[in-house]
Amino acid sequence: MRTLALLAATLLLTGCPDSSTTIDDQGALRSDFSWNIRAGIPLPVEPADNPMSEAKFQLGRHLFYDPRLSGNETISCASCHHQDKAFADGRVAALGATGELHPRNSQTLVNIAYNPTLTWGNPSLRSIEQQIMIPLFGETPVEHGLNDANRELALNRILAEPVYAPLFSAAFPEQPVSYDTIVKALASFVRGMTSFNSDFDRHEQGDSTALSDAAKRGMALFFSERLECFHCHGGYNFTDSVQDRTMFVVDRPFHNTGLYNIDGLGGYPEPNTGVHEITGRAGDMGRFRAPSLRNIAVSAPYMHDGSVATLDEAIRNYAAAGRNLSTGPNAGDGRMNPYKDGFVSGFSITDDEINDLIAFLESLSDDAFLNASRFGNPWMTP
Amino acid sequence: VDDTVRYLILPLLCCSPLALADSIPQTIAEPQVDATVAVTARSAGAVGRNEYWRIPGALMGGHAWPAEQGFSLDEMSLSLGYRIDGNFFALAKAAQHGSQGEHSEVAIEHASIGYVCCGDETRWIAETGRMSALFSPSIALHASSQVFVDTPLIADVFLGRHFHDDGLRLRRQTDHGLNVGMELWRGHAFPASADEKGGAADLFAALLHKRGRLRLETGIWSLLARAWQRPDHRYSEAHSHAGANAEPVADIRFTGDSVLGGVHGRVQWQLSADRALALRAEWMTVRADGDIADATRQALISSRYSGVLLQPELRMGRHLFALRGEQLVLDNHLTGAAAQVLAGDANLINDDNPWRIGLGWRWQWRDSIAVRAELSHDASTADPHNRVALGLVWQQALTRQGGHGH
Predict the structure, then answer these.
(1) pLDDT tens string A24-37
(2) pLDDT score of B2
(3) Confidence band, pLDDT 50/70/90 cuts, at residue A3
(4) pLDDT digits (tens, 9 = 90+) for B373-400
(5) Given an 8 Å threshold on Cβ–Cβ distance, is A8 in contact with B334?
(6) Which helix or strand (DSSP H or E) is residue B74 part of?
(7) What pLDDT, on a 0 to 100 scale, did the predictor assign at position B99?
(8) A152, A283, A312, A381: which has the fewest Cβ within 10 Å?
(9) Which residues on B lie below 8 Å from A221 (Cβ)?
C-alpha cells in the first residue's frame, strides 16, 4: 500500500507540465537610451519631442556644470545641485546668481524622470523641459539671471566654447544651437539621473545581507500602518507622485504635512504656500509634493523650506502629527492645521525605533549614484 | 435517466469522484444542533510572520489564510438544522476560522431555507439563502471532518477555501445515488465578486454507487464566476493579516470571467468489517481571462490553471491513515505596457509547479473527539519546508438526533 501510494504520488508530482508566465509588454521596456535601471522597475516616459539619447545626455551634462549659462557667469545648475548631496545643496535655501535667496530648499535630482510634476508644489508644471526654463530665466527669484538683455551674450559664450560644437552636432544634427536645444539637452541629462543601486535595492533583489538588522526593523516600521510612511513615500521611487510608461492613470498628489499654522486657520508663511500659490484655493494651502526618499540621508535639510534639519526631527514631527512652533514669526500649531493630510495623524515611537527607521532611510542611499563620474563635472581635470 | 447518467458519466471520470453530503434534517420539528471545535498546533506556518501567503503564479483570495505556526483555532462552529414540515427545512451555521486577525470574527456561513418535494425515490430540492456550495467536496467539507488539517491546495488557490454565498440551489436527488443540480450565487465567494457585474453559477452531478465491497463516489462540475475589480480580500486595505509591521502587499485587482471545472471521486474497497482501502482524487481546471490593474496600471491576463489531488487512504477501526499528494500547474500570459510590473506585484512570475505531499493520521478516540496528526512537505511557495501538525477535533451533536452534517 505504502509503495503504491508513494509511486502514485511520484507520478502525480512528475507527470505534469511546468508552470509558466509569459509577458508581452508591447515594447514598454525598449529604449535607445541606457537607463541603468534594475529589473522590475518600469522605464520613465520619454517626451515625444525630446526622446532620450546618449549624445543629448552628454551635452546636457556639460551644460549642467557650465557657469557660462548664467547672466553673470557665477552659477551653473550644479551650484545648487551637488552630486554628493544627491544634487541638493545642503543649504536651507538656494542662492541665486545675484545673491537673491530662493524661498525654497533645493530639491534632489534623483529619478526625476518619474516625476509627474516638477518643483515642490506646482500641479501644472509637468515636464522637465518646462521646469528648466524657470531657473534659467525666472525673475522671482533670480536664479541663473538670464534675461532678454543677456541671453544672446550667454548663448554666444556657449557657441564660443569649442568643446560644444561636436556635442551639439551629435545631439541635435543639423539643428542650430539655441535655448531650445540647450534646454532639451539639460532635460535629457537630469532625466537620465537614475538611482536604483542602494542597499535597499540589493535587498529587494534577494541579497539578504544587504540590510542591517536595524534597517530591516526600520523597513518594517516604514511599511507599517502604524507609521503610515509608505502611503506618501511608497513605491519604487518612495513617493506617491510617480509616472512611468506602464501607467494609464497618473496621479499628481500633494500633501499638507502640518508644518505650519501661522494664523490658526491653516496658513503657511508667504510666499511658500504650496499648491495654493497656483490655485488660490484655501484647501490647497500648504500642499507640497512628497519628494522621493531615495538618497534622503545625504540631502538635508528637509521640507520645502529646509526648515527641518535632520531626519530625526522630521520623524518626530510626523510622530507628533505635525509641528508646533511656539515662538518666532511662524509660530503656530501645525498639528491643528485644518488642511493637514489624513495620514499625518501621529504615532508613538521609541528612540530605538527612530534609529531603526533612520537606518532604513540611510539604506536608500546609492553610493554609486553619488559618486558616478557619469553624473560628475566634465570640465574638471582629473 | 439514472442509468444513462450513470453509464455516461462514469467512463468520463478516470478517477473516482465523491458523492456530496446531504444536509437535509429528517425529523420534523426536532432541531438538530451540532458544535465543532478544531484546534491545531503546527511546527511551522505556510509563510513566516509578517509575510503574505501568495503562491507564485496564482491570483489568490477568499478565505485562504495561511497555516500559522504554533497553536491555532482552525474551526469553531455551531450548526442548526430544522425540519419545519414534510417539505420545508431550515439550516443555519455560525463559524469562526482562525484565531488571529479579522478572520477570527464569527461569521454566519449558513442561513437558508429549503423545500423538498415530490416522491420517495426521487426528490427535487430547492434552497435559498446563505449556503455552502455543493459542487466540490474540497469546499463542501470542512477541514474538521478531514484527515488532513490543511485544506487542499486546489480549494485554497482556485476557490478561496470556503465557498459561502447568498444564492439559490435546485437539485434532484434519487435513491440510486444520483445528485444533480445547479447553483446561482451573488458573487461573495472567490473567484467572483458581489456587484452588479459579478456573480457566479455552477452545475454539478454526483453519483454514489455501491456494489458488494465496493463503494464508488463520483462527480463532475463546472463553475462560471464573474469578477469586477476583485481584490485579494485577505490582504486588501481593511483585511491585513500579516501583522502591523508587514510591508503592504500590492493591491492588484482582477476583472474578468473565470470558468472552472472539476472531476472528483473516491473509490473504497471494504477489506473486512473494520478495514477499508480507499483512493480519493480530484482534478480542477481554471480558465480566467480579463485584466489585472492597480490604481494606475492595467494589463490583460489570460490564465490557465490546473490542479490535482490524489489521496490513498487506509481505515483500520477508528484509525484512518492517508497519504496526500497535490500539485498545481499555473500558466499566465500577460499583455500590455504594465504587464511586467503587474506580474511582479501580483506575484505571478513563476516557472515551478507548486506542490505538497503529506502523511496524515486521524484517530477517532471517542465518538465526538478525534486526534489527528500530519507530516507534510510544502513546496507551494519559494520557501519549501516541512511541517508537523497535531490537532484535536471535537464534533458533538448537541441534540438527540444531531449530526445533520452541514
Answers:
(1) 998 888 889 999 99
(2) 44
(3) low
(4) 999 999 999 889 999 999 999 999 888 6
(5) no
(6) strand B70-83
(7) 62
(8) A381
(9) 245
Residue B235, pLDDT > 80, answer yes
Distance from CA of B383 to the nearest CA of A (A): 13
Closest alpha carbon within chain B to A226: B244
- From chain A, which residues contact B within 8 Å (Cβ)? 1-2, 4-6, 8-9, 12-13, 16-29, 40, 42, 219-221, 223-226, 230, 234, 245-251
Q: Are strands A20-24 and A324-325 parallel, antiparallel or unpaired?
A: unpaired
Q: Of A107, A139, A129, A130, which Cα lies nearest the Cα of A120?
A: A107
Single-letter code of the amino acid located at A290: A
Average of pLDDT values for B64-72? 90
Q: Of B244, B330, B354, which has the smallest distance from its Cβ to A224's Cβ?
A: B244
- DSSP H helices, A172-247, are 179-191, 199-204, 213-222, 229-233
Instruction: Give the pLDDT of residue A14.
Output: 60
Residue found under cell 530648499:
A105
Residue B312 has its nearest CB partner, among A4, A17, A24, at: A4
Cβ-defined contact of B340 to A19 (cutoff 8 Å): no
- Alpha-carbon dihedral sign for residues A222, A223, A229, A235: positive
User: Distance (Å) from the C-alpha of residue B85 to the closest C-alpha of chain A?
Assistant: 47
Helix A164-171 and helix A179-191, axial crossing angle in degrees, nearest 10: 80
Classified as helix, coil or strand, A23 is strand
User: CB-CB: which of A25, A40, A224 is closest to B337?
Assistant: A25
Both ends of chain A: CA-CA distance in Å?
78
Span A358-368, average pLDDT: 98
Considering only CA atoms, which of B38, B84, B140 is closest in space to residue B370? B38
Contact criterion met (CB < 8 Å) for A16 and B244:
no
Q: Which residue of B has its CA nearest to A42?
A: B341
Identify the band that residue B8 occupies on the pLDDT scale cut at 50, 70 and 90. very low
Q: Contact at 8 Å (CB) between B189 and B200? A: yes
Using a CB–CB cutoff of 8 Å, tell me whether B344 touches chain A: yes
The number of C-beta contacts closer than 8 angstroms across A and B is 136
**A220 to B310: CB separation less than 8 angstroms, yes or no:** no
Distance between CA atoms of B158 and B151, rounded to whole angstroms? Answer: 12
Q: What average pLDDT does the structure give for chain B? A: 87
Closest Cβ–Cβ partner in A2, A16, A224 for B353: A16
CB burial string B128-159: b at 16+ within 10 A, e below: ebbbbbbbbbbbbbbbbbbbbbbbbbbbbbbb
Q: Which of B29, B170, B156 is nearest to B112 (CA)?
A: B170
Question: What gap in Å lies between CA A64 and CA A76, rounded to an integer?
Answer: 6
pLDDT tens track for A102-124: 999 999 999 999 999 999 999 99
Q: Which helix (H) or strand (E) element contains residue A13?
A: helix A2-14
Q: Look up the pTM and report it.
A: 0.80
Reported ipTM: the value is: 0.83
Measured between alpha carbons, how far is residue A332 from residues A176, A302, A345 in Å?
Answer: 54, 19, 17
Predicted pLDDT at B103: 59
CA dihedral A106, A110, A112, A116 (to 10 degrees): -80
d(CA B95, CA B133): 16
